[in-house]
Amino acid sequence: MINAIRLTCILGGLWTLTACQPADQPESSSSPAVLQTTEKQQPVSQTIGFNKAWQFKKSKDDVLPEDIKGDWENVSLPHTPQLEPEVVNDQWQGTAWYQKSFTMPEDWIDKEVLIRFEAAMNSAQIWLNEQKVGEHTGGYLPFTLDLTPFLTPGENLLRVKLDNRDNPVTGPKPLHLLDFNTYGGLYRDVNLLVKDKLMITDEMLAQEVAGGGVFVTYPKVSEDEALVNVKTQIANHYNEAKTFRLTQSLSFNGKTLATETESYQLSAGSDKHFEQTLSVNAPALWSPDSPSLYTLTTTLSREGQVTETQTRKIGIREFAFNDKHELLINGKKTFLRGVNRHQEYPFTGYATSAQADYRDAVKIKSAGFDYVRLSHYPHSQAFMEAADELGLVLLDAVLGWQYYNSDPAFEAHIVQSCEDLIRRDRNYASVIAWECSLNESDMPDAFIATLSDTVHRHFPGAFSAGWEYGYDIFVQARQHRLQHYETPGQPYIVSEYGDWEYYAQNAGLNQDSWQNLKEDERTSRQLLNSGEQRLLQQALNLQEAHNDNFTVPAFADGYWVMFDYNRGYSDDIESSGIMSIYRQPKYSYYFYRSQRDADQLDARYDSGPMVYVASDWQPDSSTQVRVFSNAQEVALYLNDKLVAKQQPDNTPLTAHLAHPPFTFDVGQFEAGTLRAEAIIDNAVVADHSVTTALNATGIRLNIDESGVAPATGVNDKVFVYAQLVDDKGNPVFANNITLSATVEGDIKLLNQSPVVTARGEGALLLEIGDTLKGATVTVSGKNLKPATLTF
Predict the structure, then answer these.
(1) Burial label, 415 (beta-carbon count in 10 A; 0-12, 13-18, 19+)
(2) Residue 486 burial (C-beta neighbours within 10 Å; 0-12, 13-18, 19+)
(3) List of residues 6+ apart from 682 with CB closer than 8 A
(4) Given a cut of 50, is residue 32 above it in pLDDT?
(5) Cis bond leading into 172, ω under 30°?
(6) What's the start-to-end Cα distance of the chain, in Å?
(7) Which of 21, 310, 594, 655 has the greatest count of CB atoms below 10 A from its CB?
(8) Pairwise CA distance, residues 263 & 141, whole Å
(9) How far is residue 180's CA from residue 569's CA, in Å, rounded to a whole number?
(10) Interacting residues of 256 by C-beta distance below 8 A, sequence separation 6+
(11) Burial of 708 (0-12, 13-18, 19+ CB in 10 A)
């Protein structure tokens, strides 16, 4: 069972997407870097959360908001322009307007006021008090604007115009041809940054090469000693020179380990980078198995007054490759078993929450993965922070999929996106490389060279990655490898596998297992309600492909894909996920979970010894029962009678697996209970059972608390699952049973489609308001006893 970590939320995270951090986590875990104050001295600079009290209108026509019929809708962020149906076959595209009134207090008069948008889809124009203050193109990365010249004492009106229609300059393909949806709105945080005129610059506004803001690197990493270099850009916007003190302080588990303070002088109207180095003896190094994080506090003061403080989590680690192109993390050879992720949720698209992103990361880590390819665009900083904390290595990517435009404006935009991606994410321990590449797009060699060089200039010593030669790391999908493989002469990632080669290419190695199967039965695209046989086939495909990946010199592989998702060009859900779009596990989830060693334990996610019976155990179930486990042996019982006790399968499809499945011949079906026991060193260390269910008579409700309990005041999105049960409480795996749901209190049911069961479970998506006091959800169905969950 995953332990719930309650989040403390502070409005206004300046240097990250979110300002929520696990309140009871040790300092070695990740948390967002935010402007903070001390009890003794209030910094002059501050951050003001700007997510509340917005108004919203949308239109498909390019008109002013006053000309749009209807009243403004009161909304808070994160926000999507439209709640979409479960299957998004006509995503809304058009013009969206947001406006917000706010008061400028007197103490801002001598300050500088910036506004930072963490994401705005896709083309944004911003006005303050009827004056245009800036614009930005690209829907996935932050941008910061200076509001100071446009502010007036008293009331101010901020307006934002967004256009999420297809854009040839940003790409990718037009939505009706696209393999994913881009959605819209102000779907991430907005913050006001009120700063002293002597300030730490905002890295997005500064637009410096390998600079701006705070940039942390590690000139030396070893088990004996590490050096932490902190490069800070300070700007003096006063009309006179200023003398100031800059302090870097590093702590671990609440204990300060190193501090460096220097005094500097900066002339009027200038800015400069200052570098300071901290030494750490016997450092706790960051790795997927041990994601140790330090707290770095940067403090700027002048004339005895603290003017600004920033706190961020950092991980001391080294990614390197030996002469065989094998990955070394802190000198240790490592293979990264991974997965691709799309960030969308049902109905709300990209407008999720920091807590929802954390739950996704917990699910991915629980599934046995240590690596995630962020497909095919920048994901939220909340997810990056969760990866740092949990130990997920990330391949960070710009937006790109099967689209290239020779227009110089397009190339310039992609280069700018690469620069901004690095500025935003360069301090995360989890990022191994920068995929500044247009995935599955034919790019000119000169453009590839420009993108790879951009990575090296903006992050000296970092690795570039791309799907064509010319990058430091070559990423290649398995379906492409099966068509035209050459042994790579550089570090190599199997970027995608397990889906397309079984869907369109018919190129899997295990052809015999497809005898008597129809085309749609043999693919890896199987919904949760596809039935036992198809879900087992999906798991077999993934097993075969993952096993095959070890026959090439890759240092990582990434299954396609973690969660089912919607596609702009298709009127169905892409269902190759090992979890449904509602984050419900399929059999394949447990195959991957079994690949993590039993001795790896972490209370923050499912880990340790495990066993899972991949069967519904119904009259039509296969009597060749597959069991996933990371144990040495498994004993299977039917109605408490031993079927067999055996070791893992030993076949060509298991030759390279860390922990092959166990296949048991039960002989013939007999209603009752199948129970599997995992055995290590002659001791039972885990068990799992499945029981032949009777007719459904009731419902059992469970709330998704994967590492994070529901959070109030942040538009948190939380799944509630309604499991059908029989009179004895056994799960019933019936499909397509319609359920009804009602909610009370300050919560909202977001489902835009009827709630129907898949493998016996209906899924509800709730939005949490400002309080959970008195909040309940009740689910009922025909001939079923209703169930109520009270928060």
Answers:
(1) middle
(2) exposed
(3) none
(4) no
(5) yes
(6) 19
(7) 594
(8) 34
(9) 8
(10) 249, 250
(11) buried
pLDDT, residue 515, reads: 60
In this structure, what are the phi and psi dihedrals at residue 149, rounded to the nearest 5 degrees? Answer: -70, -15
User: Does this model's pTM top 0.70?
Assistant: yes
| CA–CA gap between residue 411 and residue 434 (Å, rounded) | 17
Q: What is the pLDDT of residues 359-409, one digit of tens each?
A: 999 999 999 999 999 999 999 999 999 999 999 999 999 999 999 999 999
Query: Which secondary structure element, helix H or strand E, spans residue 646, and what is its range?
Result: strand 641-646
Q: What is the pLDDT of the chain when averaged over all its residues?
A: 93
SS (H, E, C) 202-244: CHHHHCCCCCCCEEEEEEEECCCEEEEEEEEEEEECCCCCEEE
Tokens 């060749």 belong to residue: 624
d(CA 478, CA 303): 61
Instruction: Name the token pair of 731.
Output: 């799960």
Amino acid found at 151: L
Contact 367, 338 (CB under 8 A): no
Q: Tell me the per-residue pLDDT of 143-193, one tens digit each, with 9 for 90 and over.
A: 999 999 999 999 999 999 999 999 999 999 999 999 999 999 999 999 999
- With CA atoms as reference, report the closest residue to 593 among 577, 614, 610, 613: 610
3 state SS of 95: strand
The residues that bridge with 638 in the sheet, in sequence order, are: 641, 674
Query: Which amino acid makes up residue 767?
Result: E
Query: Alpha helix locations (H) across 550-654?
Result: 587-593
Among 691, 697, 745, 751, smallest CA distance to 720 is for: 751
Tell how far CA 261 is from the center of its chain.
36
DSSP state of 518: -
CB 296 within 8 A of CB 250: yes
Pairing of strands 371-374, 393-397: parallel
CA angle (408, 409, 414) in 5-degree steps? 100
Section 279-286 average pLDDT: 98
pLDDT tens figures, 730-771: 999 999 999 999 999 999 999 999 999 999 999 999 999 999
> How confident is the model over 52-91, as pLDDT tens digits?
999 999 987 777 777 777 789 999 999 999 999 999 989 9
- Please determine, for residue 708, whether its predicted confidence score (pLDDT) is greater than 90: yes
Question: Quick one: which H or E segment has residue 560?
Answer: none
Q: Are 129 and 150 in contact (CB under 8 A)?
A: yes
Q: How many CA atoms lie within 13 A of 137 on its CB side?
A: 14
Say how many CA atoms lie within 13 Å of 261 toward its Cβ. 7
Helix%, strand%, coil% for the chain, nearest 5: 15, 40, 50
* C-alpha separations of 120 from 50, 139, 144, 188, 398 in Å: 14, 5, 12, 7, 15
Mean pLDDT of 207-228: 98
Strand residue runs (E) in 107-170: 112-117, 123-128, 131-137, 143-146, 154-163
Which amino acid appears at position 734 of this protein?
A
